[in-house]
Specification:
The protein is of the alpha/beta class and 337 residues long. It contains 6 helices and 32 strands. The chain has a 10-stranded mixed β-sheet, with helices on both faces. Strands 15-18-21-24-27-30 form a 6-stranded parallel β-sheet. The chain has a 6-stranded parallel β-sheet with strand order 16-19-22-25-28-31, with no helix packed on it. α1 packs across α4. The longest helix has 12 residues. It is elongated, with a radius of gyration of 21 Å.
């Protein structure tokens, strides 16, 4: 299945983390969100990728090059971020005359459900949430609760809690429907294309077992926690003989775990990072490349991006530290007062 992956947006709700980094390239459990999405698509049956880039496009191109896991990557540039239908329109010249999938590069999908989506096209991924008014709510045929008839964007009084995950399998003809009208939000919406396809053919709602739209910083923590479940212990860096490693922990090459450190996985320690001495890392924590965790520091369920530094005698809990952040001694950051 040829797969269009949308990775052009600026991610304004993630600022300042995205001031110089596209949101799909933010790290989660040691790798960019976009890489996890491509992995899941490859597992589900993707045959090739068309990645739509825009904001800081060079970072995406430089990281992935022209292939991922043996699958070709073509790039399409969306010069102005005018909506999801416009993004797919930018990708259309790279598509073969065949059905195609569309995924968001900053969302996580469970591989099994994504494989079902690929097999069920035309289809749209669905998920049940507690706050459907924040999403596009799917409308279903009254006689067939698997058939989608439309979608209502962010309704004040939703008919159900079944929402659109932003994952689709469209027939080849859908490329002819991309010249949609501008929505009230001033964008060209892919949901308008979905409405047209629903009128032309049967579109199946495929329920996802797990799904996460990573739009805000706390959702990056949730993504790290989810992805950390699949970490498997791998020690390529230097670990002191009197350090304690428990659970699934990855220590990349060039990383140093000093004397007296305790790491309770799942945890990821990036290339060139240093931890300790006498530091404590627990929860689903990711320490980025070149980051430093000093003496007697505790890090719990947090993300330290590249080159971040937490000085000695500090506590960081349930937090994200951006690239190059430097905490002085005795800093305390937590989710409870």
């Amino acid at each position: 299945m040829q797969t269009v992956v949308l990775a052009a947006g600026q991610g304004t709700r993630m600022r300042p983390l995205t001031d110089a980094t596209p949101k799909p390239m933010l790290p989660a459990a040691g790798r960019p969100l976009l890489e996890h999405t491509l992995d899941r698509a490859a597992d589900a049956g993707a045959s090739r990728f068309v990645v739509v880039v825009g904001y800081e496009a060079g970072q995406v191109r430089d990281h992935f090059g022209d292939s991922h896991r043996g699958l070709d990557i073509e790039y399409a540039e969306q010069t102005a971020q005018r909506g999801t239908a416009d993004a797919v329109r930018a990708a259309a010249p790279e598509l073969d005359d065949a059905p195609f999938a569309v995924l968001n590069g900053d969302a996580l999908y469970d591989p099994e459900s994504l494989a079902t989506l690929y097999e069920s096209g035309p289809a749209v991924g669905s998920y049940r949430v507690d706050n459907p008014s924040n999403y596009g709510v799917l409308q279903l045929d009254s006689d067939d609760d698997t058939r989608v008839t439309g979608v209502v964007e962010k309704p004040a009084n939703p008919d159900s809690n079944l929402i659109n995950t932003g994952s689709y399998v469209f027939p080849a003809a859908a490329t002819e429907y991309l010249d949609v009208s501008t929505s009230e939000r001033g964008e060209l919406e892919l949901t308008d294309v979905l409405e047209i396809v629903c009128a032309e053919t049967t579109v199946t709602a495929v329920p996802f077992n797990r799904w996460l739209d990573v739009g805000r910083p706390w959702e990056l923590l949730a993504a790290t926690e989810w992805l950390s479940e699949s970490l498997a212990t791998r020690i390529n860096g230097a670990v002191s003989d009197d350090a304690t490693i428990e659970g699934d922990v990855v220590v990349e090459e060039g990383a140093t775990i000093k004397s007296g450190v305790t790491i309770e996985g799942p945890a990821y320690i990036g290339e060139g990072a240093t931890v300790g001495p006498n530091a404590y890392i627990r929860g689903a924590t990711a320490v980025g490349a070149g980051a430093k965790v000093g003496h007697a520091v505790e890090i719990k369920n947090s993300v330290l991006m590249g080159d971040a530094t937490v000085g000695h005698l500090s506590y960081v809990g349930d937090s994200i530290l951006g690239r190059g952040v430097n905490f002085g001694s005795g800093t305390t950051v937590a989710n409870l007062r």
